[in-house]
Amino acid sequence: YQVSKGKKNFFCNLSCAASYRNRNNPNNPPDPQYGNQYGRKYPNEVSWYATRCFKDQRFGLMEHSVRLSFANHLLEKLKEQKGRCAFTNISLSLRDVQGKVHEDNPFKIASVDRINNSLPYQEGNVQWTSVAMNFARNRTELEEFKECLQEFLAACATQNFTT
Asked: Are 130 and 85 in contact (CB under 8 A)?
């Protein structure tokens, strides 16, 4: 905390004093990553998902220069899919910035899926799916997974589920 006595400021410790000095230093401009229309690094809707994609270690970390454009691409893709799963067309619930979601059903929780699993998360290689469909697909190729889904749906149509 800070106490003002005349023109001098007194702080509870050196850490608080340093934070105050750094925040008000004209030679220390704000981080350019935050100088976008969102006022934060990434759009709120996809912030948690974008950060998870950036940290994917399988193909190396995503370069800082493409992170904001990728986060914007995720948001555009979500709007293009109208907030629905690419496989089931069920409306998806997004996680908040901390990763919390107000939904228990994994078929309704959003997840970012790679279209081609041999490529990293990048523009043109992602789609929005539900957590359940992403886990079900795992490393299966997209066309093979769609065929399996159609077989599954055909089998479900012939079953009598009344118990």
From this structure: yes
Question: Distance between CA 101 and CA 118 in Å, rounded?
Answer: 29
The whole-angstrom distance between residue 80's C-alpha and the CA centroid of its chain comes to: 16
Note the pTM of the prediction, 2 decimals. Answer: 0.72
Instruction: Kindly indicate the confidence band of residue 147, based on its pLDDT and cuts at 50, 70 and 90.
Output: very high
Q: What residue ranges define each of the domains in the chain, with the CATH number in brackets?
A: 1-30 (no CATH), 42-158 (3.30.40)
Question: What residue has token string 């193909």?
Answer: 59
Cα radius of gyration rounded to whole Å, the chain:
23
- What is d(CA 35, CA 31) in angstroms, rounded to the nearest whole number? 7
User: pLDDT, tens digit, for every residue of 114-141?
Assistant: 999 999 999 999 999 999 999 999 999 9
CB neighbour list of residue 139: distance below 8 Å, 6 or more residues apart: 117
